[in-house]
Amino acid sequence: MAEKRKILHVEDNFENRILVRRILQASGYEVVEAENAIEALDVLTHFVPQLILMDINMPEVDGYTLTQQIKAKQSFTDTPIIAITANVMKGDREKSLQAGCNGYIEKPINVDTFVDQIEAYLH
Question: Where in this chain does the entry annotate a coiled-coil region (predicted)?
């Protein structure tokens, strides 16, 4: 059997973490969660994901800053980071991409298309 693809989901909202975990695990992904930047950086010392889902609006360190910190690490320069955010105003997508995100998914997520969106970033 093929090894499960690994995703790190950085999200401070408990309900959002549960929803994403359930959708992705049902599709065969291994999901590790972090609820803030400190946890995310700690997880990345022992877990190497194929993709990172990044909430943008988090307390203390926002997703833009955390994305820059992760992309600055040699071992994660090629790891896709996807902003998953309720920031949907003009310029928000561009700001995510400028911070180093490889893509952008709007909240609330569409449960019918979410896995397809993730798959697109993994290929």
Answer: none
CATH number of 6-122: 3.40.50.2300
Cα separation, 41 vs 114, whole angstroms: 25
pLDDT in tens, 63-113: 999 999 999 999 999 999 999 998 788 889 999 999 999 999 999 999 999
- Write down the mean pLDDT value for the chain: 95
Task: Tell me if the pTM is above 0.85.
Answer: yes
Give bridge partners of residue 31 from the DSSP assignment.
7
User: Given this model, what pLDDT does residue 1 score?
Assistant: 46
Distance CA 110, CA 123 (A): 20
The 3-state DSSP class for residue 7 equals strand
As a whole number of angstroms, the distance between CA 5 and CA 88 comes to 28
Domain coordinates in residue numbering, the chain: 6-122
Closest CA to 102 of 65, 74, 73, 77: 77
Q: Distance (Å, rounded) from C-alpha 66 to C-alpha 42?
A: 12
